[in-house]
UniProtKB/TrEMBL annotation:
Name recorded for this polypeptide: 3-oxoacyl-[acyl-carrier-protein] reductase FabG1
Domain spans labelled Ketoreductase: 3-192
Keywords annotated in UniProt: Oxidoreductase
Classification via SUPFAM superfamilies: NAD(P)-binding Rossmann-fold domains (SSF51735)
Top-rank taxon: Bacteria
Gene: fabG6
Length: 234
């Protein structure tokens, strides 16, 4: 049965892989993007998710085209890496605003349709960094750790209405961001991964697809690592 699926930041990397996987299943997929072009075969909505008015307009457009959102994937995120002593207030605030506050914003708006339907799936794309920490990424780690508390609170609050909330935590993944890393840094990161390789975006999409499916109807408040073992024990 085709569902209304909304993915933030769905025009590249992990978000694109999720959008393609859900669309291949026959779902009606909408994605937000800020630059470039949206992927073919999905509804692209240009939206800055840090702007409440743009988020509201995006939901209205999606609801008109596909109906109320049934599966929400909060994927959009940014990095502004710096050592703590050199991290500016803006760099901390912007990362938290995009990676955590905006996730709250889209989740809150999605509850309208989900509560009426008495069902829904919320999936937040976190990070292994949010569980184990990382030097130079205090802002990013704090925001991604916050997604766990957000999702688990939603799980407790809305579970009786048939709404689940879970977090997928990718580790090192083959994206444009990874491609820009110096080889020395990349080699050091790979040494910390038991499987000794980075994930493909499709690996993360597979976990999201599972959590959005009927087989995962009794899973909520969970943190699902897709990190090659890098974060185990956290």
């Amino acid at each position: 049965m085709s569902r209304s699926v909304f993915i933030t930041g769905g025009n590249r990397g992990i978000g694109l892989a999720i959008a393609q996987a859900m669309a291949a299943d026959g779902d009606k997929v909408a994605v937000t993007y800020r630059s470039g072009e949206p992927p073919a075969g999905v509804l692209g909505v240009k939206c800055d998710i840090t702007d409440p008015e743009q988020v509201e307009a995006a939901f209205q457009r999606i609801e008109e085209a596909h109906g109320p959102v049934e599966v929400l994937v909060a994927n959009a995120g940014i990095t502004r890496d710096a050592l703590l002593m050199r991290m500016s207030e803006d760099d901390f605030g912007d990362v938290v605003g995009t990676n955590l506050t905006a996730a709250y914003r889209v989740a809150k708006r999605a509850t309208r349709g989900m509560l009426r339907a008495r069902k829904g799936r919320m999936i937040f794309i976190g990070s292994t960094v949010g569980l184990r920490g990382e030097a130079g990424q205090a802002n990013y780690a704090a925001a991604k750790a916050g997604l766990v508390g957000l999702a688990r609170s939603i799980a407790r609050e809305l579970g009786s209405r048939g709404i689940t909330a879970n977090v997928v935590t990718p580790g090192l993944t083959e994206t444009d961001m990874t491609a820009a890393l110096p080889q020395e840094r990349l080699d050091a990161m790979l040494e910390e991964i038991p499987l000794r390789k980075a994930a493909r975006p499709e690996d993360i999409a597979a976990a999201v697809r599972f959590l959005a499916g009927e087989e995962a109807s009794y899973i909520t408040g969970a943190v699902i690592p897709v990190d090659g073992g890098a974060g185990m024990g956290h």
